[in-house]
Design a protein that fits this description.
The complex is a heterodimer. By secondary structure, chain A is mainly alpha-helical. Chain A is built from seven helices and two strands, in the order H-H-H-H-E-H-H-H-E. The longest helix of chain B is centred in the C-terminal third of the chain and has 26 residues. The chains are: A mainly alpha, B mainly alpha.
């Protein structure tokens, strides 16, 4: 008798059309472009503040390096291993992400880049995520970016082998990115 | 379905360890200078030249290289974030390789994600924290 009964309904996660890795990378490139714009603004601001600072500290004192090379703009854009290239990208991503990855994603479900690629960030039930998980998701993305060599690379490549095509920052908060169009 | 995931994380661990070994072999430093493949590097810090005090990452290259050569004391003095970084990267490599020697079991990807991002933030806090002590 029992084997004739229909199977009990399982609390299934709704079927989702998980976004392709290529689409996610393209969306990330667009969102990254916004962060680059913010970084450029911060870079210029730092240069202006530095210029004013050098004028206040001493006229021309800081515009010539200790090796006798010209300072100012050339020294700023010529620096190679300075903190600018370590600190500025994540800070810019964080600043741009507060609008693009937190506000927009929690309000409408997708960032600028994801909107262009017709992607949507959802939770396990297929709903748009709220502000809290969106903030945690952004913090995880930036935190992974702070881990040299492996953090960002693993985060970027994880959807390639993940069955639900989640990145590591998706794993951290239990979100999924789906294709809507 | 997990085979590719484990293979990739193992590869990440192997590449990370190889990178650290390469750094150990190819680079050398003392408290003031850095040599790469026997050639001295002349890197300066724009921030330090401009403002007169070090930036948060000043001493990081020397600290990391000294740490790779086992000189923990000088590495810590130059920038405490250097030893923290190397220790973290070695730990990440070990977790990635999941060495059976220490009996590590499968690390769930959620824990890995949260752990790695937390480590990233702590790393930055260490770097900024030590910087505040160096500020004039």
């Amino acid at each position: 008798m029992a084997e004739n009964w229909p199977p009990p309904p399982s609390p299934e996660v709704p079927t989702m059309n998980y976004a392709l890795w290529v689409d996610r990378v393209l969306a990330a490139l667009v969102d990254g472009g916004i962060a680059v714009l913010v970084m450029f603004v911060l870079y210029v601001l730092l240069f202006v503040v530095g210029g004013i600072g050098s004028m206040v500290i001493g006229a021309g004192e800081a515009t010539v390096s200790h090796r006798g090379e010209p300072g100012g703009l050339s020294s700023l854009f010529g620096c190679s291993t300075c903190c600018l290239f370590f600190i500025l990208p994540p800070v810019s991503y964080l600043a741009a992400g507060l609008l693009n990855k937190v506000y927009l994603v929690s309000k409408r479900g997708y960032s600028v880049g994801q909107g262009l690629m017709k992607l949507r960030v959802v939770d396990g039930r297929g709903n748009t995520i709220s502000m809290g998980p969106a903030v945690l998701r952004l913090l995880c993305t930036v935190g992974l970016g702070f881990v040299p060599v492996v953090g960002g690379a693993l985060d970027l490549l994880w959807p390639l082998w993940d069955p639900q095509r989640q990145t590591l920052h998706d794993k951290a908060v239990g979100t999924f990115v789906i294709k809507t169009g | 379905m997990f085979r590719g995931q484990y293979l990739s994380t193992r590869l990440a661990g192997i590449f990370l360890l190889l990178g650290l070994v390469l750094l150990r072999v190819a680079a050398w430093a003392d408290a003031n200078q850095v040599w790469l493949f026997g050639r001295q590097l002349h890197w300066g810090c724009w921030f330090k030249e401009h403002y007169g005090f070090p930036c948060p990452t000043c001493g990081m290259t020397r600290s990391v290289i000294l740490m790779m050569h086992g000189d923990f004391h000088n590495a810590f003095l130059l920038n405490p974030a250097g030893p923290f970084l190397i220790a973290g990267l070695i730990m990440v490599a070990i977790i990635s390789l999941r060495l059976p020697l220490i009996g590590l079991k499968e690390i769930k990807s959620r824990q890995l994600a949260l752990g790695l991002s937390l480590y990233g933030w702590v790393f930055v806090c260490v770097m900024l924290g030590q910087w505040t002590f160096k500020l004039p």
